[in-house]
Amino acid sequence: MNRKVIGSILIVILLAIGYFISPFYNNEGYNTGSQGGISILEVGAQEVGDRPVKTYELTAQETEWELGDGKQVNAWTYNGTVPGEALRVTKGDFVRVHLKNELDVPVTIHWHGVILPNKMDGVPGLTQDAVEPGESFTYEFIANDPGTYWYHSHQHSAEQVDRGLYGSLVIEEKEPEYEQDEFFILDEWTTGSGDQGSFNMGGMMQGHMSGDGEMDTKQLYDTFTVNGKSGDAIEPLVMKEGETARLRFVNAGYQQHQLMFPEDSIKVIANDAEEVSGEKGSAQVVEIAPGERIDVAYIKQSDEPAVIAENPNVENAGGMQIPVVSNENAVVQDDVTVPVSSAMADGTSYGSEELLFKETPDPDVTYDMDLSMGMNMGEGMSFQINGQTFPETPPIKVEEGDIVKVNIKNEGRMNHPMHLHGHRFQVASKNGTSYDNPIVKDMIHVKPGEEYVVYFEADNKGEWLFHCHDNNHADLGMITIVDYKGVYSPFEIGGENQPE
């Protein structure tokens, strides 16, 4: 057999191998298709057993929604309201949610922060096919971890979350510590000449040049809301003097918010569903990043009306003021002042009560995550991880049981709240300085020039997103995947499946 024949045979063999392998891996090595191994549909199964079952029906539908102050928007909603129906379950419950789609676009539900089986994570193209108009899908999981969570669409979320497809989820302790427990979802809306869900490239460029890490969102939105209402339409918080309530805050928008409280009225008690350690942290201002959850214990100090309000130095702050009154008929006078203080807490100000690692572990996998802004040929601006945009970003390849170290560095000029699905990580250091009290979270807000080191254990098999929760940035590429060896996703990214 001569060399040409041997060469031809080798080429045919290589082409055949490529033919059989190519459906199973995309350009970056994410496990897709149906090659050897276990489908994500077969891992992490959870059975009802003898648990209580909490069942909900959520319908995605179009709704004309009144924000208040005479402003109305065409919203996309779960069950016709912004936010969607409030879900409250108890630790140990089996949660069953039937999603029906009455919109004319595909949708999903992602259970933000909840540790659950991969197939229930709600990411189109990775953990399921997007739910088409007129179709339905049922999500099931055990509510194992008490805390503050929220749910939202992960299908083209830069638009769908922006239009109102989100709601609250609380997993309560079997014996709640606080009698009064309230949920507040913060957001921003476009009600002027712009369109909700349309990214502001001009603002992004301005911010990139000026160094303002939020110029893109500040330029885009003109109305702030609390629980879907703005200004005088915001429902008051009703409390008597001396009472204490647990207030759960979620930022569903793409701009950070600095909430100001009356002096000495709060203690931060939890971040991202993790209780803070030791003496609860006291602050007067709490900064909440996009996608982040922060809980506070709030004490009503007198019978006089008060407000919890956005930093008044921020444009449009007047729309984000929560009245605190002693009876629901009380009127908050215009002369109630918004407190101003430099004593500020954010999502890394206080350590966590229960750590993932008592000491800094030796990692099995180390991943350097460089966040930056760049240009895609023919497509304009992009947000990149290690110089690439999704789905070409390099994955974090792990095996079950691995300890994973991620060095996150923001080399750009925009803020990037980075959120990990299906796991919690321990924040070990910031800008090279170790925390005396490490923090356990699933979202870390990385501002320009900042570096964080986080650790997590690969203990939940599947294919999981790690992405920027300014969903406009995710839409323009800032996503990677934690890719477990030995499992694959049978779904395909692209077409009707848009996980950004």
TrEMBL record:
One of its GO terms (molecular function) is copper ion binding. It holds the Pfam family Cu-oxidase. Residues 60-175, 209-298, 381-481 form the Plastocyanin-like domain. It comes from the Bacteria. Keywords: Copper, Membrane, Metal-binding, Oxidoreductase, Transmembrane, Transmembrane helix. InterPro entries: Cu-oxidase-like_N (IPR011707), Cu-oxidase_2nd (IPR001117), Cu-oxidase_C (IPR011706), Cu-oxidase_fam (IPR045087), Cu_oxidase_Cu_BS (IPR002355), Cupredoxin (IPR008972). The chain crosses the membrane at residues 5-25. PANTHER family: FI03373P-RELATED, MULTI-COPPER OXIDASE. This is Multicopper oxidase family protein.
